Here is the input.
Amino acid sequence: MRSLYFDGEQINLVNLEKPIRLKGESLVKVLLTSICNTDIEIIKGYKGFTGVLGHEFVGVVEDSDDEKLIGKRVVGDINIGCGKCRFCKEGYNNHCLDRKVLGIKDKNGSFAEYITLPNENLYVVPDSVSDMEAVFAEPMAAALQILQCHHIRPTDKVVVIGDGKLSQLITQVVSLSSCHLFVVGKHRDKLDFLKHRAKPILLDEVDSLNIEGEFDVAIDCTGNDQGLKLAEKLIKAMGTIVLKSTYNSDGLFNPTNWVVNEMKIVGTRCGPMDAALRLIERKLVRTDYLVSEVYALEDYEKAFSKKNKLKVIIDIDK
Here is the structure.
């Protein structure tokens, strides 16, 4: 089985044994998988993971002890709980203290021809959703988790910080609340994609616009600690900072302003896959423009190049 294996220092294309599904699991043939910023941070040392990377995918179930799944196109929740702890029993397997996470923690991921996942982690893709749309389900769910963790009101003034892959989805999702929405980024071309959803602001223009302390909510998805510092600057007293960034570094912060201004800091991670599929099926968000390039597994070095501006898709059968 062709796989992209990260040994802790570099990625290599290797041949591994096809995974054997356990009881309650399905064997999934991966069709498309995409590169997430988390994959890039893992390569830098985030989480200390070694194994097959990749967690955003769409595939077809080839074998399962749930016959209704066989032959179905699926996407998957990447968190695999132990099923026994109090978090799992309360339905929060994504916070299981002994969890495995596809392509991130103790579980080989989707940069391979096959993966296995528990049946309960799989979601059938509607017929009207293409493979190229379905591969965005996992990051779309992550965007939706913001609304699960913090209620954004139509009257709120909200700023999304960052103009990358996840920011593009988050801005589209948050815009559905009809809030007064802004997005800050470094790249005019990326901001232009969002100008019908939010008011775009170039990072270099922030200081001249006198918008410090103007926002009820700031959503950081920059992937670096400077995003959090800007969010702190832009929100008003008693405002909320929503964090979506994961990065392999230790940011240095002085929390005094957080305390004095009674700021709320909300971390959000993985979200509802079924809701993500509904959002895509109803065409309430666009994903087509986000695809920078489609590569074969063998072209992984090109796939991980910084020249790719937005989402890179790996076609396993290409």
Notes: The CA atoms of residues 5 and 12 lie 5 Å apart. The two ends are 14 Å apart (CA to CA). The domain at 2-140+270-315 is CATH 3.90.180.10 (Quinone Oxidoreductase; Chain A, domain 1).
